[in-house]
Amino acid sequence: MGKLxxxxxxxxxxxxxxxxxxxxxxxxxxxxxxxxxxxxxxxQPDRLPQARLSWFxxxxxxxxxxxxxxxxxxxxxGTEYSDGTLRTxxxxxxxxxEVYLAFFVSVAGTAxxxxxxxxxxxxxxxxxxxxxxxxxxxxxxxxxxxGSLATCLAFSAVFTVVGMNCSGSAQAAVICxxxxxxxxxxVNYLVSALHAPAFNAFRNWDPxxxxxxxxxxxxxxxxxxxxxxxxxxxxxxxPSGQASQYAAMDSMHPSRMAVYAVLFSGLSTMAGFSLFxxxxxx
Amino acid sequence: MGNLLSADLARLWRCKAFWLxxxxxxxxxxxxxxxxxxxxxxxxxxxxxxxxxxxPFAFLIGLAAAVVCTLFLGSEHAVGFRNxxxxxxxxxxxxxxxxxxxxxxALLLCAAAVLPGGILGPILLGEGFDAMAVVMIAGICLxxxxxxxxxxxxAMLVSSQAAAPVIALLLSLLLxxxxxxxxxxxxxxxxxxxxxxAPPTVEGVEPDRNDTVxxxxxxxxxxxxxxxxxxxxxxxxxxxGGQSYQYxxxxxxxxxxxxxxxMASCAAVFALSTAAGLLLFxxxxxx
Lengths: 282, 287
Description:
The complex is a heterodimer.
Chain A: H1 2-13, H2 16-43, H3 55-58, H4 61-81, H5 85-91, H6 96-130, H7 138-165, H8 169-194, E1 199-206, E2 211-218, H9 225-237, H10 239-248, H11 254-277
Chain B: H1 2-13, H2 16-39, H3 50-54, H4 57-74, H5 80-86, H6 91-124, H7 131-157, H8 163-186, E1 191-193, E2 216-218, H9 227-238, H10 240-248, H11 259-283
Antiparallel strand pairs in B: 1-2
Helix pairs in contact in B: 1-6, 2-4, 2-6, 4-6, 4-7, 4-8, 4-10, 6-7, 6-11, 7-10, 7-11, 8-9, 8-10, 9-10
């Protein structure tokens, strides 16, 4: 297991794509801080001294980690399947479970590295430019940080399922990216459905009485009952939903989402491994 | 060329990704129509025309073309190209037959989305496509062929199995996002009513609408007529992403504006990407 991991990480260290993604994360972190700073500078320069680094910037990496991991997994998987690397590993006596787990741990480790790079850049640039963040609700912040890292694990777990079970790297790349796009779309739909108000209010001028009367009409687009529970659950359970909540800091039940993320990782790893165990590796 | 084309079409016929995309588009169109029929009278969009329900597939045609073209051509890089060149076909003929196959695939994808509308529309909603919609469908078909040309060039040049679909998918997303940004920027109104200058509303008293001319303030994002606006307008109409967005969001009404220019831009994108692709493909080391 240790040897498998060190082999994977040695490959990753030489992978140009990995360093490219690190560079992209640095750029995105820089952009996030500079964009916010520029808004202050352009619109309210006098309020700049009171500006603080906010959680939005700190968790900005959550928007980018999904696509980055999808791309990385697809490429990482390609080298695993080409040249019979996977078969060689099995021939020298590693079990399939070790190979699967090593792949998952390498991908998850990469996700955490990319996340930390983005957080570090945001802190490094954000504190001098925007001022230190408010430190009044530390436990909540820590919960959010741990939860968002758990979401990174969930992304890695689900992409590992695709990567280990798909022999063609082109197919793996397409499946990872298309499922990510579909999940983003689903999450957008869930958000708009959950935010639909229960009632629509109309203000009408009543000339006879000389006052405004207000009528409320039930909104047909409102989602209630069991469907609402299901939507809310999906929004908190899917890694894309969690990512959008962390990036917007609008939920939030970080501890619940962390549990969901771990559950999601476990379930998808079990499903992925049971498929991989039976896979014909030729 | 005939042999090449029939071989490629036979391979397309067995391409699972192509059939999955066709199925997805057919289900999307019929599902949207069925939904419109089912909830029809309750929603405000009840009087929307048929194309409002069918055309949103134009948002996704770039992504679908990216998937189909790169997966279909990706397997060629292993041995296909070499064998074809070995038996004496010129590289231009190989490129041409692959381009033709991908274009046919893109057109079939459009047909998978539009035909359910043409068949189910008159039955469920009681209306078919009008003349303008037919012209716009021709525009979308051209657009999908332009996408196919771009992604064919990409898939012919990028030998890495994983890189081609990733680049193609990200490129089509980027084009779509750019198109969205362009359309939104062009749609900015020059001025909006000044919210600060609105007369204070007194509870229970109707505001006198006659004595106040609402003061309007300029919006910061409005692009005034000039080189900047015409550049954005040109790029939005020229690039496939902007066209995708305009056709997809057909109810906003910008899709039917500048239609001849849009069709000409599709032809230009097709010609440019094919010329570049062919030029580089002839020099490519196929190993």
